[in-house]
Amino acid sequence: MNLIEEINKLKREKNALILAHYYQSDEVQDIADYVGDSYYLSKVAMSSPADTIVFCGVKFMAESAKILSPNKKIIFPNPDAGCPMADMASADKLKDFKEEHPNAVVVCYINSNTDVKSLCDVCVTSSSAVNIIKNIPNEEIIFLPDKNLGEYIAEQFPDKKFYLWDGYCITHKKVKAQHVQAIKEIKPKAEILVHPECEREIRELADFLGSTGEIIDYSITSPSEEFIVVTESGVLHEMKKKSPDKEFYVPGTTMTCINMKKTNLEDIYLSLRDNINEINIDEDIRIKAYKSLENMHILSQRRD
């Protein structure tokens, strides 16, 4: 059986759309109709005429798509593909944290679970966070779950008081400065591209610091021909497609997210064939979580 042919046949029969995050395996990215970051893919799902969305990523991403598209069937091919960072923030602990800081606006990274989003004032992405917080007048900010991204954002706002959750991405945390410097010694002309989920010692080495999509865009427009890419290794597939004549390096074997790599073609095929692994969210929680995503859109608009 040719899985690719069977998946494409099921897509046509069921009016389905396959979405894949940049960190998915090459074969999953290649079968997808759209590849991108989690919020972009959720917006694609919302605007698509497809009845069924197959979301290849980690669980909070599929949940975000369901929050924005409650009337569509959102299939999550591998239910074991969770996000450890998202799981580091629980709704119960957040309630307590909010009581400790009653004057703070609660800002959550989109890499968070639905019940946590439902308790937050606004969601952000790594690319939109700084602009959104510029548009928040409050002086106190609770930021969760990623302490490293929160620390990076807080550096842009010395006049605001940030209360940072003690969470982190296990993949971005693995990389150390010596891993990056070892490649730089061999490839001295290579530019260092870093995601802000990395710790400060890595961020300080960056020639460019940005979200996954921003890193890809930068590598396309930069005159440099060599790059050290300090984010999940799956992004190299898209970077090589966009810039086939350029060279990309990652710091050893440290930059692979095992959860992002759990989904395979068989998972996609079986979930489509058998209509299994559908995402369902309690409507009351969904509505509250939707508000935080809606505020992300509102507050990301630049103000004069």
From TrEMBL:
It is found in: Cytoplasm. InterPro entries: NadA, NadA_sf, Quinolinate_synth_type2. Its main location: cytoplasm. Gene3D superfamilies: NadA-like (3.40.50.10800). It comes from the Bacteria. Iminosuccinate binds at residues 21, 38, 109-111, 126, 195-197, 212. It catalyses: iminosuccinate + dihydroxyacetone phosphate = quinolinate + phosphate + 2 H2O + H(+). This is Quinolinate synthase. It comes from Clostridium paridis.
